[in-house]
Amino acid sequence: MGKRKTQRKNATMLDSDDDNSSVSSSSTTRSDRMSVSASEEVEFNKDSLLDEAVDALYEKRGSTREKALAVIIEAFNSNLQQGQQFVERKFATLLHQCLNSIKKGSSKEISLASHTIGLLALTVGPGDNAREILEESMIPLSQAFKSGSDPSKTASLLECMAVITFVGGDDPEDTEKSMQIIWQVVHPKLGSNVVAVKPSAAVITAVVSAWSFLLTTMDGWRLSPKLWQESITYLSSLLDKDDRSVRIAAGEALAVIFEMGSLEKFAAETKGSSDGSVSEGNKSKEGFSYIQGLKGKILNQVRDLSVEAGGKGSAKKDLNNQRNLFKDVLEFLEDCYSPNTSMKIGGDLLQTSSWSQLIQLNFLRCFLAGGFTKHMQENEFLQDIFGFTPNKRNLLGSEHMSNGEKRMYKSPNSALNKARTQLLNKQRMLSAGRNFGHYAVNVGDEDS
């Protein structure tokens, strides 16, 4: 009874203004305390604002729960260490209240709850808690995809599923299952009473980005040829779409596929699959010819997009981003040169040298937004994934490495990916003499 009175008191503080505006617009002292900039440090005492926010998730009013989720997101972004301490006490409560929000909340509440769950996974890092997040969230997330068609809500759900799988997936089967669920958002399994709904450009972009993000953690030689044929054909068709964000997402996904050598694998399996019968032999030849033709088509599409003149009203920045991306994809397809990028985080340099690394970095930067710098400076899981070492850390003898070692197979720095890089380096030596590292872009100083 006492706890319920406390929740009601805290909910009153959270709900002091009756509209759906953000927490930062509230005029009350408590809400002012709850308005947290992503770049600010927040000191939480034992009776913390986070405790009050979690208590407010029990309230009936949706706007109260939305404000509470916004507070939790800002707090997790602004002070990772305090967030980790909080999670030790309230992990299960926070997870299940967020899942309740996904089951019964508005589109806005579902988006906020999805983002909170993703942040929760990144905060706890790989282990039993991350595994629990994935197992408990799969059904609610899958069902939420089918309810309503708000693009923002769907994008948040997709990001959430990708992130919790990235952190909590213990084996490739977990990742494949999530990738299939994500793929079905744009390719639903239709029954006799199901009508296909054409997905918006925003949803297509979100699906392809989440799918390719998880693809970077997979060994492409494990996946079935049928899956590759479907995905590559679809991605090629997206390169002809009017929406530039769709074309860019598809281009990045195809770059990862080519980097993994998966198209060549499919072509080789198709060519060598005959059991000696005439019909099977013909199918084999037809399949191999189809894949070779598709590869040639993609190369031509990429070449055209790398020099596109742009259309009426086309934003110059977006057009330049597209040209630069497809120039790099073209160079990779023709000469096996992977993109090299670098960015500063708090004065320390984070570098990538493959498409897989770049896709992972871009996805997590977008997901974390204002909390990206904090997480890269303090989140040991992400530091291990990208091989990033802030100056303040001494890796020798560091106790955190045990968790990192559990997950290094997912990192583009793993032995599998390093072997792939060595193969590409050999191929480069056979290419025409060119300066290494065409794509060496400093994407900005992220100093906090």
TrEMBL record:
Region Disordered, residue ranges: 1-39
Biased composition (Low complexity): 21-37
The protein's name in its UniProt record: Interferon-related developmental regulator N-terminal domain-containing protein
Domain of life of the source: Eukaryota
Family: Belongs to the IFRD family.
Domain Interferon-related developmental regulator C-terminal: 379-431
InterPro entries according to UniProt: ARM-like, ARM-type_fold, IFRD, Interferon-rel_develop_reg_C, Interferon-rel_develop_reg_N
Limits of the Interferon-related developmental regulator N-terminal domain: 24-334
